[in-house]
Design a protein that fits this description.
By secondary structure, the protein is of the alpha/beta class. It has a single domain, classed as NAD(P)-binding Rossmann-like Domain (Rossmann fold, 3-Layer(aba) Sandwich), CATH 3.40.50.720. The chain contains nine helices and seven strands. Strands 3-2-1-4-5-6-7 form a seven-stranded parallel sheet, with helices on both faces. Helix 2 links the parallel strand 2 and strand 3. The longest helix has 29 residues. The radius of gyration is 19 Å and the shape is globular. The chain binds nicotinamide-adenine-dinucleotide. The site of nicotinamide-adenine-dinucleotide (NAD) has 28 residues, from helix 1. Pfam families: adh_short_C2.
Length: 264
């Protein structure tokens, strides 16, 4: 018996990257996974790969910015699967970096639309069914950027902070229906989103990470799977940082490293 046998999961932005890895992990634990994404070809390929490894999954094209499309997609999933146990609000983009005073309004709105409005629309649509079944696990994708406020990414940081607010508030609103709402805060994880950062700073980031490497998609998927499983039943309104300790390191550590004998 696998941990998620008989459960149904929806993952947004699941055609590639972290979302795809979460789908693979959840289906490996027995869940039927609905892979959703704006990208049809890559999304269908993800489903095909899950089938090839013995998992159960299907694809639906979904732009999380479209509230009506979110409702009809979630309704269709419930009609087809008969339950919705897990929702992972993962869809996202990084946006282009710019100093805040030079950032375009369009870019700002689009970032918040995908991350914040998209997560809200999906949460609301899935919660309707989770309340009926008195069970649900909702996982929202925040970021370490919600703690460290990455320079040049005001839109991204604002969106990821907002996702924490959404997580904490909805955790309280939905708790009496046995629905938990938690967040993940990945640091720098190897994906298309971080290609350009890693191209210039991979060595520096690895060296500044206590666990000594760049995070993998699987590292985030493992944490998501824990939050999605019955094992996390007494956790709600929290966020798990998946960063190998990166946030802990500061300039003083470099000074201390020079001062402390290496045998200590
Ligand atoms: N990679 C990292 O280091 C990192 C760190 C912290 C947080 N995150 C977050 O993790 C999530 C996934 O990131 P990733 O690294 O896998 O990126 P990615 O670019 O590989 O994947 C993002 C997916 O989201 C989809 N998407 C984009 N806009 C969408 C929309 N409007 N509707 C539906 N799907 C849409 C894309 O098509 C893509 O498949 C994002 O929310 C990101 O902010 C990533």
């Amino acid at each position: 018996m696998k941990k998620l046998d008989g459960q149904t999961a929806i993952v947004t932005g699941a055609a590639r990257g972290i979302g795809k890895a979460i789908c693979e992990k959840l289906s490996g634990e027995g869940a039927f996974v609905w892979v959703t994404d704006i990208q049809k070809d890559e999304g269908e390929k993800t489903v095909q790969e899950i089938h090839e490894s013995g998992g159960k999954a299907d694809f639906l094209q979904l732009d999380v910015r479209d509230a009506d499309q979110v409702i009809s997609t979630v309704d269709l999933i419930y009609k087809s699967s008969g339950r919705i146990d897990i929702l992972v609000n993962n869809a996202g983009i990084s946006g282009n970096p710019a100093p805040v005073d030079l950032m375009s309004n369009e870019e700002w709105k689009d970032l918040l639309d995908i991350h914040v409005n998209g997560s809200f629309y999906c949460l609301k649509a899935a919660a309707k069914y989770m309340k009926m079944q008195n069970y649900g696990r909702i996982i929202n994708m925040s970021s370490l950027a919600s703690e460290t406020s990455l320079q040049g990414f005001a839109h991204y940081a604002a969106a990821k902070y907002a996702i924490l607010g959404l997580t904490e508030t909805s955790a309280k609103d939905l708790a009496s229906y046995n629905i938990t709402v938690n967040a993940l805060k990945p640091g720098i994880i190897r994906s298309t989103l971080t290609d350009s950062i890693l191209a210039v700073a991979e060595e520096r980031i690895s060296a500044s990470t206590p666990l000594g490497k760049i995070g993998s998609l699987e590292d985030v998927a493992n944490a998501a799977c824990f939050l999605a499983s019955p094992d996390s039943r007494f956790l709600t309104g929290i966020s798990i940082i998946v960063d190998g300790g990166f946030r802990l390191v500061n300039e003083m550590d470099k000074v201390m490293n020079e001062m402390i004998p290496s045998s200590i």
